[in-house]
């Protein structure tokens, strides 16, 4: 069978070693004669899985002890509602940086609960799409928090700077970039990420929240989205997505074995350099994001002749390079190259691209 590399933006490729291990222990987990997804989330066996996953996640991101880690349901979109519900307090507004599709979606949801101050940071640099640097963001003093999305999965645009806004509560949607590079967690009030890109299977959402932000939820917030309730119940206020939690735990172990987030950072840089290099060295392929804001996780690119899009997708699929179709709002192609994508996968893609150009250019 052809080696398959899956460039899906999410649910995305998982490390093959993790899948093999899960496969091996699927029906007889730890000698119990049953799978891990069939045991109680309150059993001592599952609690051990849950605790190990949390500890490994904390180690990987160097999460300070004054932060809680919550294993939630509802994806990142549930957090679009949970954030204002938990953090507004008495304030009427919050600052929302609009840099792309997902940041904008968070604003639309927040509008149900407050009057978000939309700060549009989209700009152009040498004719390419770019985002204003943080020092140019016009934040408001009376905003309860500032929300931004460091990596826009659809637009392929990223903010690599880390926030430095004094006492401001900074909230970041890290869904498509978490654990792809080291971050300084202490600069954030809340970090959240749907698991299905850089962590594990869909169905699990990780929330990292600073202790002093707990206990401020509005009355309307469903208990299942109330950070304090979740923290007090160790993310088991209701039945958590146990299988996704277990599998994410295996991914965290894999990451540690691979050298952790610092090592991922290097490999991710090498993968992105390789792919952007091929795009930039050709007039057949195009990426229209300014170098400083290019995403290392999601690389959208267009073919000079859009009439070849279908041929490219058909032939790449034949070559074992899956899910390269761009998002419907952008078109063209998109290669998502999260942690689980090995350098060899990006090499295979770039070789295919060069050969495709030779044959069709
Ligand atoms: N935020 C970002 C950056 C995303 O990439 C996505 C999904 O692709 C979402 C939010 C929405 O995530 P979910 O489908 O888990 O609600």
Automatic annotation (TrEMBL):
Task: Name the chain's protein.
Answer: Phosphoserine aminotransferase
This chain's function reads:
Catalyzes the reversible conversion of 3-phosphohydroxypyruvate to phosphoserine and of 3-hydroxy-2-oxo-4-phosphonooxybutanoate to phosphohydroxythreonine.
Q: Which co-factor is required?
A: pyridoxal 5'-phosphate
Q: Which residues carry this modification: N6-(pyridoxal phosphate)lysine?
A: 197
Detail which positions bind pyridoxal 5'-phosphate. 76-77, 102, 153, 173, 196, 238-239
- Annotated metabolic or biological route of this protein: Amino-acid biosynthesis; L-serine biosynthesis; L-serine from 3-phospho-D-glycerate: step 2/3; Cofactor biosynthesis; pyridoxine 5'-phosphate biosynthesis; pyridoxine 5'-phosphate from D-erythrose 4-phosphate: step 3/5
Catalysed reactions, semicolon-separated: O-phospho-L-serine + 2-oxoglutarate = 3-phosphooxypyruvate + L-glutamate; 4-(phosphooxy)-L-threonine + 2-oxoglutarate = (R)-3-hydroxy-2-oxo-4-phosphooxybutanoate + L-glutamate
According to the record, cofactor stoichiometry and binding are noted as:
Binds 1 pyridoxal phosphate per subunit.
Q: What residues does L-glutamate bind to? A: 9, 42
Q: What family is it from? A: Belongs to the class-V pyridoxal-phosphate-dependent aminotransferase family. SerC subfamily.
Taxonomically, the superkingdom here is Bacteria
- Output one GO MF annotation: O-phospho-L-serine:2-oxoglutarate aminotransferase activity
């Amino acid at each position: 069978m052809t080696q398959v590399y899956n460039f899906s933006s999410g649910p995305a490729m998982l490390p093959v070693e993790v899948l093999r291990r899960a496969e091996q222990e699927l029906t007889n987990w730890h000698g119990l004669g049953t799978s891990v997804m069939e045991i109680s989330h309150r059993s001592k066996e599952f609690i051990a899985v849950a605790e190990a996953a949390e500890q490994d996640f904390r180690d990987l991101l160097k999460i300070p002890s004054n932060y809680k880690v919550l294993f939630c349901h509802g994806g990142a979109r549930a957090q679009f509602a949970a954030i204002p519900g938990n953090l507004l307090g008495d304030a009427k507004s919050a600052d929302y940086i609009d840099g792309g599709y997902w940041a904008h979606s968070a604003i639309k949801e927040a509008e149900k609960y407050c009057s978000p101050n939309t700060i549009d940071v989209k700009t152009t640099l040498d004719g390419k799409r770019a985002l204003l640097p943080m020092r140019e963001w016009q934040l408001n003093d009376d905003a309860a928090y500032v929300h931004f999305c460091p990596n826009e999965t659809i637009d392929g645009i990223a903010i690599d700077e880390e926030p430095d806004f004094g006492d401001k509560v900074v909230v970041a949607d890290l869904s498509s970039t978490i654990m792809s590079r080291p971050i300084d967690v202490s600069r954030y009030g809340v970090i959240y990420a749907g698991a299905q890109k850089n962590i594990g299977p869909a169905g699990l959402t990780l929330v990292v929240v600073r202790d002093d932000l707990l206990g401020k939820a509005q009355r309307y917030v469903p208990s299942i989205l109330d950070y304090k309730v979740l923290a007090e119940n160790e993310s088991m206020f209701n039945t958590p997505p146990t299988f996704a939690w277990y599998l994410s735990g295996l991914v965290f172990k894999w990451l540690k074995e691979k050298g952790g987030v610092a090592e991922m950072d290097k490999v991710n840089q090498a993968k992105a350099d390789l792919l952007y290099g091929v795009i930039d060295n050709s007039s057949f392929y195009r990426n229209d994001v300014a170098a400083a804001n290019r995403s290392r996780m999601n690389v959208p690119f267009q073919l000079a002749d859009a009439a070849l899009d279908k041929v490219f997708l058909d032939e790449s699929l034949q070559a074992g390079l899956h899910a390269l179709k761009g998002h419907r709002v952008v078109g063209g192609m998109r290669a998502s190259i999260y942690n689980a994508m090995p350098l060899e996968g990006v090499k295979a893609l770039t070789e295919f691209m060069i050969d495709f150009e030779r044959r069709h250019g």
